[in-house]
Recover the amino acids of this structure.
């Protein structure tokens, strides 16, 4: 397998020149598929965004024609480089039938469970023993850690453009409640618990009611602290018009940090894996 350093150099050159050498895109997508390369990866206490990986994905889109493909007896039409991911029994993934799709170039770790219908896009990374419940979207280049529970109806937003933009990241052992939405470079730290219906972007204020602080985005990244329990809230608007009409806008509230009671409420059932 081509080393990551060599692959990066080839992708960067091809992206700049607009011409991909024969076999480069296949090698690149294979490296994504098996987790050899990632759109973002842990680096010390933070994360390193690999913009060159997004360039490789964009290059594959640019170089591919739309072709007819067949799945379950039906025809569909997509870029030639991105058929559905091949999954084998030995991969240790449980993919329940019923309309899910995992695109080539998405990594799934052993013990991942996927309930239908779910969609995992190219460049996404879903680590071992994570549950993706029904109607979940894991967008392009999103990074999801191990033993995460992603409840029904959750959208983990993807990002390809601009190339240097931050993907959504969910660290190990987090619990994402039903119908949550994570977008535009949100970082959910290890063990955090998000209540159902919470919508997070860098423009949604995050209020830590435990420590009585406001957690502002830094460099376009909104970070949910480790083990924080976050619920939807409302921030009252202070204009005269808003006051007269009692208007508020969305906010997110940290109401506690994980304890034994929280752990019991969100405990994962290993039998499902």
């Amino acid at each position: 397998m081509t080393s990551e350093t060599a692959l990066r150099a080839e992708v960067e050159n091809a992206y700049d020149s607009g011409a991909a050498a024969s076999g480069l895109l296949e090698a690149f997508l294979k490296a994504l598929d098996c987790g050899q390369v990632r759109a973002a990866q842990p680096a010390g206490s933070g994360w390193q965004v690999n913009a060159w990986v997004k360039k490789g994905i964009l290059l594959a889109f640019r170089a591919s024609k739309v072709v007819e493909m067949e799945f379950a007896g039906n025809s569909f039409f997509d870029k030639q480089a991105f058929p559905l991911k091949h999954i084998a029994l030995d991969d240790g993934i449980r993919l329940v039938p019923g309309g899910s799709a995992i695109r080539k170039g998405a990594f799934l770790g052993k013990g991942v469970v996927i309930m239908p219908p779910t969609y995992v896009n190219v460049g996404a990374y879903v680590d071992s023993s994570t549950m993706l419940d029904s109607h979940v979207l894991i967008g392009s280049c999103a990074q999801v850690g191990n033993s995460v529970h992603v409840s029904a109806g959750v959208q983990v937003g993807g990002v390809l453009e601009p190339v240097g933009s931050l993907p959504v990241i969910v660290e190990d052992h987090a619990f994402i409640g039903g119908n949550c939405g994570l977008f535009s470079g949100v970082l959910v730290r290890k063990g955090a618990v998000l209540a159902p219906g919470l919508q997070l972007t860098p423009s949604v204020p995050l209020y830590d009611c435990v420590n009585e602080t406001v957690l502002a985005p830094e460099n376009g990244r909104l970070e949910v602290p480790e083990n924080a329990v976050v619920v939807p809230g409302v921030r009252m608007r202070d204009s005269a018009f808003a006051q007269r009409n009692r208007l508020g806008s969305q906010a997110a509230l940290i109401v506690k940090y994980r304890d034994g009671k929280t752990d019991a409420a969100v405990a994962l059932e290993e039998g499902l894996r």
